[in-house]
Amino acid sequence: MSLAPSPRPGILSIDAYVPGKSKAPAGVKLHKLSSNETPLGPSPRAIEAYKAAAGALELYPDGAAEKLRIAIAGRYGLDPARLICGAGSDELLSYLANAYLGPGDEGLYSEHGFLVYKIATLAAGATPVIAKEKNLTTDVDAMLAAVTPKTRMVFLANPNNPTGTYLPFEEVKRLHAGLPGNVLLVLDAAYAEYVRRNDYSAGIELVATSENVVMTRTFSKIHGLANLRIGWMYGPAAIVDVVNRIRGPFNMNGPAIAAGIAAMEDREHEDKSVLHNAHWLAKTSAGLKALGLGVTPSVGNFVLVHFPDETGKRAPDADAFLTQRGIILRRMEAYGLPHALRLTIGSEEANLAVLAALQEFLAGKPA
Ligand SMILES: *Cc1c(COP(=O)(O)O)cnc(C)c1O
């Protein structure tokens, strides 16, 4: 018998999540475009609220984040009792996996789905199952074909990170309709605010009318509060009750709650961020294509850039070249996309810098 402590089965098969790089060579201006952070930053009102909360750091927070839930509920017309806030939506995804998955169960997601689903599934001792995608988009038929009697959770990022593609609401409903009632469908709508398509829905209506669907959202992307760790979940009463039983009693902190409320109320800042992204997503995508690079059509605040053989250039070389110039993109090996880099839409200056640098890279200029 071994004398050293050993973790539950599955834990050691987890590859720990590797965040986007954030370092440029000394003396070069950094453009961090590797983590889908917003170039506009948070609402100034959120920053003010955060600072004001510094006066009461000795007091325990309201872990149930009631005021923040009320602000979110007011904004989206929801019942605050059916919301839960978490330290980022990542925490909520872990809670869900820990509550609904165990050894012998299967957690299902698509081929290039968000990496946290695999980590959450393995950490719960369950088995990850992957369904093939079509055109880097979730394939509902393949997802349904991968469901077995052991399936307990299905994760769908819509839009998906890192592909930027999305499923129209009709397809999401078809996926749900094909799942047995004992399978929990998790709609991860981290980028919902950015989507400008009239056949898209984050899924509120499906949660409201089902017993086995939850939607997770985040303040890390459009609201620019990634550093504060704020996510929320909307779900059926029974699932909210279950998650509240395992939620850390003080998983939310006061400054985050205060900043989150202010961010939720600042519609002007949110609209500005949506418009900035829509403008530069289109412009940057067109610019990349004009350089001969492949671009997966995205509805999020990032694009997947492919380096086709015709260019004679490889993604890792492009990454190294851009890094030399202080421009940090995300490598995609961990997502099974070694010929692509993911680029977050940044400020005007950053987007133009990427296009100019890639043009020189493709022309064979030295970094
Ligand atoms: C960024 C992201 C999240 C949000 O994570 P937080 O923990 O809320 O910062 C969730 N899902 C996807 C697909 C993401 O890309």
Describe the structure.
It is a single chain. By secondary structure, the protein is an alpha/beta fold. The protein has two domains: 19-41 and 268-362, Aspartate Aminotransferase, domain 1 (Alpha-Beta Complex); 44-265, 3-Layer(aba) Sandwich (Aspartate Aminotransferase, domain 2). Helix content is 36%, strand content 16%. The protein is built from twelve helices and 15 strands. The chain has a seven-stranded mixed sheet, sandwiched between helices.
Q: How many separate structural domains?
A: 2
Strand runs, count: 15
Q: What series of H and E elements makes up the topology?
A: EHHEHEHEEEHEHEHEEHHHEEHEEEH
Proportion of β residues?
Answer: 15-25%
Label the structural class: alpha/beta
Give the key terms.
single chain, 367 residues, alpha/beta, Aspartate Aminotransferase, domain 1, Aspartate Aminotransferase, domain 2, 2 domains, 7-stranded mixed β-sheet, 4-stranded antiparallel β-sheet, 12 helices, 15 strands, binds pyridoxal-5'-phosphate
